[in-house]
Amino acid sequence: xxxxxxxxxxxxxxxxxxxxxxxxxxxxxxxxxxxxxxxxxxxxxxxxxxxxxxxxxxxxxxxxxxxxxxxxxxxxxxxxxxxxxxxxxxxxxxxxxxxxxxxxxxxxxxxxxxxxxxxxxxxxxxxxxxxxxxxxxxxxxxxxxxxxxxxxxxxxxxxxxxxxxxx
Length: 167
Ligand code: ADP
What we know:
- By secondary structure, this protein is of the alpha+beta class.
- It contains 7 helices and 6 strands; from the N terminus they run E-H-H-E-H-H-E-H-H-E-E-E-H.
- A hairpin with a 5-residue loop joins strand 4 (112-113) and strand 5 (119-120).
- The model has no long low-confidence stretch (mean pLDDT 97).
């Protein structure tokens, strides 16, 4: 079954300049990229993304990690699409704990555990279909995705909305 999955190269991946290596590994899946952007991560976005982990002892640390407080405040967010995309991407990522990830995987090759005990594991990938839907809608607007039919959309009129434009 064709499905989308959200992939994020986290701030450690960007700071280490290994984005190309990560994309090369992901290309082994033969999936299609239907959305991609560099984004600065606010606390609100990080907390919403990891809301299922609220209450864990490492929650505050992973929020700071995703916001780039230990590296750079940029991530590369992407949507990969295709047959069995969620499992295919998770497989090339490897286990959450980089010490347990197979050496050939992205996390096994490039991840580490910090002295504070945080898994700096380079990449995020959606865990299941409902997580993928929630995460894609959180990170992307419908018009930023090269697919008309991913999830239902509606057209609304917004009056008096402020928008930043080029001078
Ligand atoms: P995944 O990213 O593999 O889906 P989780 O959603 O459970 O895993 O965790 C989110 C992120 O929090 C992980 O990618 C990792 O950076 C960090 N993390 C998860 N579990 C731990 C842990 N036990 N100790 C330290 N950091 C963790």
